[in-house]
């Protein structure tokens, strides 16, 4: 620092991980209670963060309260390490906490995520931090917080079953494809955040600790490791995840969640892994999808050589209910309303 | 006037480290987690219990001390100075309760269980124990794969029955952190405790 006598502004210094210590203690106490009451939304005094609501302020506060100097942080936005939100949050913690970051799921001790659970299975020592736009699963069925709080207190979840039933009445199946409600440890109905329902089964008996932070709505909730997480359904309409007609066009993985990529204005499209780390890892191992760069030794970017002019690709139509939206970035409230089917 | 024992040498990183131990303890009930601290608080407050207090308590969290701790004025002074937490004689309004003598601890019903709407507004009890035995009790519930054995000493008579009564209140109830030498284990309200 040479700024003492030159009149320059001194370099800005932050407390470790940006937040002040009292805020961290308050968040930490909320996290401990959230763990003790799995699926229950603990109110907390969310702070203003140096990013707008909807860009992960809840997840960032949870990560900042949990993070230590020896942690290795990974941040994903809809499965991708390289989108604006993920890059910005990773940079935020590199700058304010000086922690190591990674894109490799297996190397991370803390993974902050927006709307996906990584394909690589998580381990005992890992913590998954979800960014949550609307934490209240009943919010679009009952707008009053006082009422939804009563419904949770009374374990009265009939409204949610009516909503799922209306899906069946209208569409013949449960048309909710993301933010699909779950029951945690046999008690609380919880919004898993807008992950595709494809990811719901990964929450059940997960060896990692799962923490959820909603900054605008000021709620924290948690699923301890090895906790029963059941997606709501009916005996005659059991819960089922999306299936895809073809494997990933780049790494040939099947049984993973795929994003639809539009290639041209003639209907050309491809389906590729939403989890970029998983996809890159498989390509590095030599797996090749039908649209991957042909020879080894070439650059293994996530989408090598994609020519926007390619067309005549056979349409790859997924099975029912695939939420192929790819909206990296932020979560406005309106992001949630449409896709979940008929709201009463 | 006695000299005041010092707090964390590095308040930021030590508080984070102690919190992580507490978080691991509550998310993996009954599995003791490493909690090492250099604190030397006034007796009978133990270093591990003091570390939890300094990491988690502040002006927002009324603290209750059991009779043995409350009898030692230096303990209250130490906690009040380093955390700023108000010391309360009413266990029902305490957010944290520190118990140095678990054998004579108050019944859980004396502490705040939270309300059906806000079950998080409940007391967290920090029990000072001498060690973990790994048997005597069986635990199952969130955070536990299957069922595990657990034991700690000293624990009051009828401990399993007390925990069962606490579990019956779920989602209300108190949560326990058991602080032994160099270790902390959690027994959140969600854990089902039985006799082994």
TrEMBL record, chain B:
<dbReference type="InterPro" id="IPR038058">
    <property type="entry name" value="PhnH-like_sp"/>
</dbReference>
<dbReference type="GO" id="GO:0016829">
    <property type="term" value="F:lyase activity"/>
</dbReference>
<keyword id="KW-0456">Lyase</keyword>
<protein>
    <submittedName>
        <fullName>Phosphonate C-P lyase system protein PhnH</fullName>
    </submittedName>
</protein>
<dbReference type="InterPro" id="IPR008772">
    <property type="entry name" value="Phosphonate_metab_PhnH"/>
</dbReference>
<dbReference type="Pfam" id="PF05845">
    <property type="entry name" value="PhnH"/>
</dbReference>
């Amino acid at each position: 620092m040479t700024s003492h006598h030159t009149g320059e502004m001194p370099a800005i210094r932050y407390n470790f991980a940006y937040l002040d210590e009292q805020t961290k203690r308050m968040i930490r106490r909320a996290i401990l209670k959230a763990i003790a009451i799995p699926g229950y939304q603990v109110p907390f005094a969310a702070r203003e963060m140096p990013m707008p609501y909807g860009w992960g302020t809840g997840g960032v506060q949870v990560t900042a309260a949990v993070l230590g100097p020896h942690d290795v942080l990974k941040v994903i936005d809809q499965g991708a390490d390289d989108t604006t939100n993920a890059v910005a949050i990773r940079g935020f913690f590199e700058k304010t906490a000086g922690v190591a970051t990674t894109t490799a799921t297996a190397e991370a001790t803390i993974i902050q995520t927006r709307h996906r659970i990584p394909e690589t299975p998580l381990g005992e020592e890992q913590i998954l931090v979800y960014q949550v736009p609307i934490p209240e699963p009943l919010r679009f069925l009952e707008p009053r917080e006082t009422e939804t709080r009563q419904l949770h207190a009374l374990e009265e979840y009939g409204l949610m079953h009516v909503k799922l039933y209306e899906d069946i009445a209208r569409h013949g199946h449960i048309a909710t494809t993301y933010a699909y409600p779950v029951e945690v440890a046999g008690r609380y109905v919880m919004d898993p955040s807008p992950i595709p329902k494809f990811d719901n089964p990964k929450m059940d008996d997960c060896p990692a600790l799962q923490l959820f932070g909603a900054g605008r709505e000021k709620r924290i909730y948690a699923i301890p490791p090895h906790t029963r997480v059941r997606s709501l359904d009916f005996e005659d309409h059991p819960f089922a995840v999306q299936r895809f007609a073809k494997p990933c066009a780049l790494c040939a993985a099947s049984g993973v969640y795929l994003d639809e990529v539009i290639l041209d204005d003639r209907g050309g499209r491809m389906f590729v892994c939403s989890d970029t780390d998983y996809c890159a890892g498989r390509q590095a191992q030599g797996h090749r999808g039908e649209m991957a760069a042909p020879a080894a030794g070439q650059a293994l970017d996530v989408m090598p050589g994609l020519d926007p002019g390619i067309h005549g690709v056979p349409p790859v139509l997924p099975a029912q209910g695939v939420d192929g939206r790819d909206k990296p970035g932020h979560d406005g409230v309106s992001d949630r309303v449409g896709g979940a089917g008929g709201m009463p | 006037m006695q000299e005041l024992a010092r707090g964390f040498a590095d308040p930021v990183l030590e508080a984070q480290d102690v919190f992580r131990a507490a978080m691991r303890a509550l998310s993996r009930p009954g599995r003791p987690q490493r909690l090492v601290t250099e604190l030397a608080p006034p007796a009978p407050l133990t270093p591990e219990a003091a570390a939890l207090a300094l990491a988690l308590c502040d002006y927002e969290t009324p603290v209750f001390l059991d009779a043995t701790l409350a009898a030692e004025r230096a303990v209250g002074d130490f906690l009040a100075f380093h955390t700023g937490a108000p010391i309360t004689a009413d266990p029902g309004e305490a957010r944290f309760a520190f118990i140095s003598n678990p054998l004579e601890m108050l019944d859980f019903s004396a502490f705040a269980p939270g309300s059906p709407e806000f079950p998080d507004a409940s007391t967290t009890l920090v029990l000072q124990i001498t060690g973990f035995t790994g048997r005597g009790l069986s635990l199952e519930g969130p955070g536990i794969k299957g069922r595990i054995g657990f034991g700690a000493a000293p624990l009051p008579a009828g401990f399993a029955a007390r925990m069962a009564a606490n579990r019956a209140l779920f989602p209300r109830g108190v949560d326990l952190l058991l602080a032994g030498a160099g270790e902390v284990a959690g027994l959140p309200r969600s854990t089902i405790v039985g006799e082994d």
